[in-house]
Amino acid sequence: MKKNLVVADLLTHGSHDWNQARVELIFPEVAHLILQIKPSSLNAEDAFCWQRARNGIYSVKTGYYAALDSTDHPTIASPAPDNFTWNRHVWDINTSEKLKLFLWKLCRGALALGANLQQRGMALQAVCPHCNATESALHLFFTCPFAQQVWRLAPFATPVDWLDINTPHQALIRATSLLNLPPTGLTSDLVSWILWGIWKARNLLSFEHKATTAPAVMTSAISGAREWSMAQQTNLPRTSTTRYMERPPTLPTVRLTCNSDAAWRKETNNAGLGWVIIGSQDGLIYEGQGHARFVSSPLMAEALAVKGMLLAASHLTTTNFLMQQIPESLVARMLNLWALDLHSNQLKTFPNSIGCLSKLKVLNVSGNNLQYLPKNYRRLQIAGRAERQFQPTDHASGHDRVRANEYDEALSSYSVGLLISLVELDVSYNGITVLPDSIACLRLIQKLSVEGNPLVSPPFEVVEQGLESVKQYMSEKMTVL
Ligand SMILES: [Zn+2]
What range(s) does the Reverse transcriptase zinc-binding domain occupy (predicted)? Predict the structure, then answer.
């Protein structure tokens, strides 16, 4: 062995890959860990990155959370039953994002309830403000006499009774089978709105000593659900916007459409990769596949699939290729990006987690098929906790997709409004009708291009008056909500 061995000596000469035999010979104990590190194909420089912080730089706070995660500590939340899935019973239900987050906190034991606070050693008094019983989630929302009064008023096809449930999860499972009676005409998930109403009534009583009646809670729940449902209807009036649609974006003639996916096995750390590239001109389909060993996580597997696809596409043509989607999980791995140019692709959606890119200065997604941009839910204060709860550390092969989705959902708190460094945003020539209000939060923005969209909000009268008017309009909308 050479005395001054460097990392390059462990790479196969002339390639960008490890010399596996040499690595295993020199470092038999840690070879599997070394091989999990994927060297750059493009000679990019190595850098340290602390994955727990959005900016990649270590902080004591995130270190503290990491330490907490690595030790056994009792969780306050009751475990979710087997037939409970976060997507089906929380994230995918038909209700506002604010309420989904609230339900998530409820199930996670993260609401500032007396019992929860006491377990954290914070509460002075842990009693229900309505009846002085111990204030647990189960009590406050379901079994408290006040809560029971509220639920009795709920316009469900069959009366709902929660006395036999043991965890909030069970209530959410049952909620999916409840039917709203006409004439309420509600399509939204009413249970979430009622729970929210009970929570608001509790806070009003605890902190402002104002009592709310059960009928008032139910009325505001129903009207909240109805208002929200109406706001979701997409057939909004389209005014004189068509004149802005006349000029289509100029697109290159050679177009490729690319998709990729990966499968990963925890037991073996092997990954299968696959991609399909479709040429729009010749209609030819290029398929590619590969496998990788020493892959540390499903995220890494997906990233390798995208990498394989990009390399294949770059061999097919150097002019252009079109992406249909950006894997949500990848955004969280591009934290130091400062410019992202995806114009003239075929993006239909945009990852919610885009807001992680706190260093991004320039974002260009013009000439895609976007219908909307990720919204901001003003969840900054819980972002750290969500990140901690959802660090995808304990992947089991069958469940990693589900868990990855949960992670994505938690990340949806970071959205356009959190791109705090953004100076230029170009979303022109898409199908966007409503810009997210959180654009008002972009303090540094100097250039906003929105032409060529069927915009309803902000209306064109506002857009025509320039950026400041748009921001003013958006911030007024934010405060009304
Ligand atoms: Zn009570």
Answer: 82-151
Distance, in Å, from the CA atom of 442 to the CA atom of 422, rounded to the nearest integer, reads 7
CA angle (152, 77, 379) in 5-degree steps: 85
Q: How far does residue 211's CA lie from ligand 1's centre (Å)?
A: 13
- For residue range 205-231, what is the model confidence (pLDDT) as tens digits? 988 889 999 988 988 888 888 888 878
Question: Would you say 348 and 371 are in contact if contact means Cβ atoms under 8 Å apart?
Answer: yes
Distance 126 CA to ligand 1 centre (A): 11
Give φ, ψ of 402 to 5 degrees.
-60, -45
Write a three-state SS string for 75-101: CCCCCCCCCCCHHHHHHCCCCCHHHHH
Cβ atoms of residues 380 and 418 within 8 Å: yes
Cα-based angle 435, 440, 446 (whole degrees, multiple of 5): 95
**Residues in CB range of 437: below 8 A, 6 or more apart:** 375, 376, 417, 474, 475, 477, 478, 481
State yes or no: pLDDT of 146 exceeds 90. Answer: yes
In contact, 163 and 143? CB cutoff 8 Å? yes
Closest-CA residue to 92 (of 104, 109, 78): 104
pLDDT reported for residue 294? 87
Return d(Cα 272, Cα 263) in angstroms, integer.
5
Domain ranges of the chain: 94-232, 253-323, 329-389+396-481
Residues by chain with Cβ below 5 Å of ion ligand 1: 128, 130-131, 133, 144
Residue 146 Cα to ligand 1 midpoint, Å, equals 6
Ligand 1 midpoint to CA 153 (Å)? 17
Distances (CA, A) of 133 to 125, 127, 170, 380: 11, 5, 22, 33
What is the Å distance from ligand 1's center to 92 Cα? Answer: 30
Q: What percent of the chain is predicted at pLDDT more than 70? A: 73
Token pair belonging to 428:
């022109």
Q: Please tell me the distance from the alpha carbon of residue 135 to that of residue 408, in angstroms, as a whole number.
A: 32
**Cα(143) to centroid(ligand 1), Å:** 7
Q: Quick one: which of 157, 189, 158 has its CA closest to 173?
A: 189
β-strands 447-449, 256-265: how paired? unpaired
Query: Class of 329-389+396-481 per CATH?
Result: alpha beta
Q: Kindly report whether the global pTM for this prediction surpasses the value 0.70.
A: no
89 C-alpha to center of ligand 1: Å? 25
Q: Concatenate the DSSP letters of all residues of 289-309 into one string.
A: EEEESS---HHHHHHHHHHHH
Topology of domain 253-323, CATH: Nucleotidyltransferase; domain 5 (3.30.420)
Instruction: Report the separation in Å between the CA atom of 422 and the middle of ligand 1, taken as the mean of its atom positions.
Output: 47
Q: Which residue has the higher pLDDT, 129 or 348?
A: 129
- Structure token digits, residue 409: 């959902």
